[in-house]
Design a protein that fits this description.
Helix content: 25-40%
Structural class: alpha/beta
Strand content: 15-25%
Largest sheet: 9 strands, mixed
Shape: elongated
Oligomer: single chain
Number of helices: 14
Order of helices and strands: EHEEHEHHEHEEEEEHEHEHHEHEHHHHEE
Distance between the termini: 42 Å
Length: 397
């Protein structure tokens, strides 16, 4: 079996725009499966045909990370005749399973309405043939040991079993919702927020605020490694912008009351990220904030941070608790990297008694004492490093 049958769900609800979502999904799949694979769109399905059966595992691993894919399965493809369908069910699908199975079920979908048999008739004919060949096995539609799926389509019939059915991440193809820039720290939350944004169709790049000499090169390497993992889910390179926040933090820590430091750091980060986004044509920002998880994430403090910029900022984790976020980070492959013991830029300037319900008027008053802030923020952008990150390579742009 050199064929993978790919299903999608949410895309099917897109009405007149459905074709654009399907085309984008085909494009993404073609980019991540082996180069000699053929990817073709059919009605409600995408067919991936591999030139070499040995590429199957690689293709399956790639499809498991493609946003927009609901599920996929290895499939047998035969001509649409009842004889060919029955032979394929007997010879290529059920032999090994039936050695240990006590029951099976059949589910047929006949999208080719010109086919001479109805779905119910196909189930009856194929089911009877299987029982005759394996008399000890019964049909159980409610709790079978395995299920055979038959899809009769215009260009042939696909057969596969639930044993080969694998889940994709769902969502929408990356790029269908525009572009976003994530504020990516080395922690657990922001990579998960970036992943969730990509799941909703955003093509994500990232900005990481380095703070040398207060943070070392290992902290930056950690974030670039996180970007390598996220690039696998994106299906293409991720660009990471690395401005230095050290002089900004020094200005704030020397001039503003200590309780406001974190809020002011984050307002500067928000402004710098917005300017990068405007220059590079990103539509919005994404952060890893979760409501009330830390002092800077109270409604009052988030309001004060938001007021520092005008660009749309989304927070995919706003209703998550830490347990949910950790579980998701383990699933997507970022947890082990995020828990490396290297501090990010905000950790090294943590106030002893941070404000938890800061009033915007007081925040702005504290910020007004930092007279060189705008100049230093502009300098951070002018001098920033830029990296192009793929799963196998990190290079300076």
């Amino acid at each position: 079996m050199n064929t993978l049958l790919v299903k999608y769900s949410e895309i099917a609800l897109k009405g007149r725009n459905r074709r654009f979502f399907e085309d984008r999904l085909v494009h993404t799949i073609q980019a991540v499966v082996p180069e000699d694979a053929t990817v073709k769109k059919e009605r409600g399905r995408i067919r991936v045909t591999l030139a070499d059966a040995g590429d199957m595992r690689q293709a399956e691993e790639a499809l498991s990370r493609v946003f927009g894919v609901h599920s996929f399965s290895k499939a047998v493809v035969v001509e649409s005749s009842i004889e060919a369908i029955t032979d394929a069910a007997l010879d290529k699908l059920v032999g090994a399973e039936l050695h240990e199975a006590a029951s099976f079920a059949l589910e047929t979908r006949r999208s080719d309405k010109g086919f001479e048999y109805t779905s119910k008739q196909i189930n009856e004919i194929v089911g009877k043939a299987i029982q005759e060949a394996h008399p000890g096995v019964s049909v159980d539609l409610n709790d079978s040991d395995f299920t055979i799926f038959i899809e009769v389509r215009e260009k042939g019939t696909y057969l596969y079993t639930d044993k080969d059915l694998q889940s994709g991440p769902g969502g929408l193809p990356v790029g269908m919702s525009g572009t976003g820039l994530a504020l990516l720290s080395g922690g657990i939350d922001s990579p998960v927020a970036t992943w969730l944004a990509m799941k909703r169709g955003l093509s994500m790049d990232a900005v990481y605020f380095h703070s040398a000499p207060y943070t070392g090169e290992k902290a930056k390497e950690k974030v670039l490694d996180l970007a390598r993992v996220l690039a696998r889910w994106k299906g293409e390179a991720m660009r990471v912008y690395v401005p230095s926040l050290a002089l900004v933090q020094k200005e704030i820590s020397e001039n503003a009351p200590e309780g406001y430091w974190t809020i002011l750091f984050r307002r500067s980060m928000q402004r710098i990220a917005e300017r990068i986004a405007r220059q590079k044509k990103y539509g919005l920002l994404v952060t890893g904030d979760s409501l009330a998880q830390v002092a800077s994430q109270t409604p009052e403090n988030l309001t004060a941070v938001n007021a520092g910029s005008t660009i749309l900022t989304i927070r995919p984790l706003i209703g998550y608790d830490k347990v949910e976020t950790v579980a998701r980070s383990q699933h997507i492959g970022t947890y082990a990297i995020s828990t490396r013991p290297f501090e990010d830029c905000c950790s090294v300037f943590t106030p002893s008694n941070p404000k938890t319900k800061a009033r915007l008027v007081d925040v702005e008053k504290a910020e007004s004492r930092c007279r060189s802030l705008e100049k230093l923020e502009n300098q951070a952008i002018e001098e920033m490093q830029v990296f192009e990150v793929t799963p196998g390579k990190i290079q300076t742009v």
